Amino acid sequence: MRLLMMTKSPWSRRGTLKWPVWVLLGCVAALILLIIACLVDANFFRGVLTRYASSRTGRPIRIDGNLTAHLISLSPRLTAERVSVGNPSWMPPGPTAEVGTLTVSLELLPLFSGSLVLDRLDLGDATLHLVRTADGRANWLAHPPSAAMGHGLPLMHSLSMRNAHVELHDDRRHLDFTGTVSADDTQGAQGSLPFQIKGAGQLNGKPATFTINSDQLLTVRRAQPYHFEFSEESSGSRLTGQGFLSQPLDTHYLSTTFDAQGADLKDLYFLIGVTFPDTGPYRLSGKLERHGMQFKYSDLLAISGESDLRGTFSVDSSSGRAKFAADLYSQRMRTADLGATAAGREEPRSEKRFMLSDKPLRLVGIRRSDGTVSFAARELDLGRIVLRTVNARLTTGNGVLDVPLLSATLPEGKLAGHLRYDATFEVPKVELEVHVTDLQLSQLSRKDTMPPRIDGLLQARIALSGRGNSIHELAASSNGTVTAVLPHGAVRATFAELTGIDVTKAFGLALRKDKQEVPIRCGVASFQLHNGAATSQELVVDTEPVRISGTGSMRLDTEALDFTVTGKPKSPRLIRVRAPVLIRGTLEHPKIGIEPGKALMQAGAAVALGVLATPFAAILAFVDPGLAKNADCAALIAETNTSGAPAVAAR
User: Fold this and answer.
1) How far is CA 525 from the centre of its chain?
2) pLDDT by residue (tens digit) across 153-184?
3) Mean pLDDT (whole number) for 496-518
4) Residues with Cβ < 8 Å from 279, sequence gap 6 or more?
5) Helix, strand or coil for residue 48?
6) Which residue ranges make up each domain of the chain?
7) What are the two backbone dihedrals, phi and then psi, of residue 503, each rounded to the nearest 5 degrees?
8) CA distance 598 to 549
9) Which contacts of 604-613 are long-range, i.e. CB under 8 A and separated by 24 or more positions?
10) Could you tell me the pLDDT band of residue 353, with boundaries at 50, 70 and 90?
11) pLDDT value, residue 56
């Protein structure tokens, strides 16, 4: 029995020759299919093929013309006429591509390892309808934005597309392009990489061209980098660069250097999709590394006019909400190099409507992203004021921008503060606090005018909150307190005489533009703001010959001034007119004059306003507790406590 079992045919052993049998059956089946394919018209399989392709891609696909097949080859080929490819199911219905003649040739051997490699792809007489919605869904993508990222295009060893008509409508980047695009692996410029894609047309109504040269497709391998170089031009800007795809034909993984230059940095948005401010002629260079949805810009250098900016910037969108980090530094930054005027998009205004800028604050992007920015500048030129050693750190999260650290120095003086900008409201809300130390007032005067009427080292504190889309709107709705103290300084003699000493002497000084100064012992200006109306709590400048006091208000919506100032001499004068000085006009153009209707002779008694609600010492402590201990300001406090509030003219 054992002998019979041992000599039994191996075909009776279960599974012993199972694999060879299945291989043989597979070969027979393939041979039968090939014979059928040769004998039967390929159009017979058109319906099956389009249904399979539609189910695999999630798009409606039709072949309305002839279908031919050449399958007996290591590179089987299909050619279809009048092919249309619709939008994916997660996009609004519509066509993505219409191709007059489509030829696809596959490499057979890689299929056995599970890889798809195209031997050749030809698109003749093609029209591409490319659409991206405002929420980021694009019909040229294989997956919706919320899905896992794909692996890019399949490897291909030849691609040809001659003068395809392309229509791009991008609601997310606000782009509209109409033009032609060609691709060919034999048309690279002499001395450059051999595969070339080039296009030309109208981008947002302006001429645009682009060219991409890259490695020959025939040499593409998954394990080696794929090199490219590019050039784009539109709206007066030109962008060039070179780099490589670490995973060939997958743009989710790349490294490239870039260089851009043009007439206005803002126009670069059309080429790379990043929003920049208006500038004059500029140059921007750097390096970009992309890994999936993580982007890192390094070695950044931007130059426009006399301004420069350099540093690093990174953004990670893998979670669906952008998270960014930036570390930026500037040798010199001028506000005059930024804005539509610098770009020549609008004429400089000979007469500014407001001193405080009414240009909209374009910070709505903080509603869509979170991150941190560190900024430092050796010099920040704001026009009348030049800040030095500027340091700022800001964070954004859930629509709120917070600047916990802001510091800078002036040629004489320092400032520090913090800011909170809440864009979760339709009209953003802002909270601001700034401390100013040892600010030389003469720095704020215009160079083309006479020296300031009051000079000295100013100490100040500003604590405000408001709502608005511009600095002017914020000021016009602000509430809070502004207080400034001048422990020591000087006032022009002309102004001091006008406020209550000798009118004839004052006019004499004014006529000959006398620059004589009177020392200031202590000066205080404190305002309470409500809905943009600043009302004086205390206005007093104590000099040796006269104590100048005042009252009034300022409206920040119109920037109109309405102040009355008078002086109380500390010694008898033979001739003196109590003529209150009126300060009218606006912040940009203040006007100083005398109120003649209030002119009275020396015999008139001084009129006191009474003690204000806020104690004088508390006003000084609001700015700096040490000011109340200043010898001259302490003396002024003592005088105020003895005689009541400093006298001012009745109105």
Assistant:
1) 37
2) 788 888 999 999 999 999 988 889 999 999 98
3) 47
4) 264, 265, 266, 304, 305, 307, 337, 338, 342, 343
5) helix
6) 479-643
7) -60, -45
8) 16
9) 604/578, 606/568, 606/647, 607/647, 607/648, 607/649, 607/650, 608/644, 608/645, 608/647, 609/551, 609/645, 609/647, 609/648, 609/650, 610/644, 610/645, 611/644, 611/645, 612/537, 612/538, 612/645, 613/537
10) low
11) 84
Neighbouring CB atoms inside 10 A of 208's CB total: 22
- What stretch of H or E contains 123? strand 117-132
- 601 burial level (CB within 10 Å; 0-12, 13-18, 19+): exposed
The fraction of the chain above a pLDDT of 90, given in percent, is 34
Q: What is the pLDDT at residue 493?
A: 54
3-state secondary structure 196-222: EEEEEEEECCEEEEEEEEECCHHHCCC
Dihedrals phi, psi of 266, to nearest 5 degrees: -60, -30
pLDDT band at 111; cut points 50, 70, 90: low
- By C-alpha distance, which of 434, 414, 330, 412 is closest to 379? 330
Per residue, what are the HEC states of 319-386?
A: CCCEEEEEEEEECCEEHHHECHHHHCCCCCCCCCCCCCCCCCCCCHHHHCEEEEEEEEEEEEECCCCE
DSSP helix/strand/coil, 390: strand
Write down the pLDDT at residue 212.
94
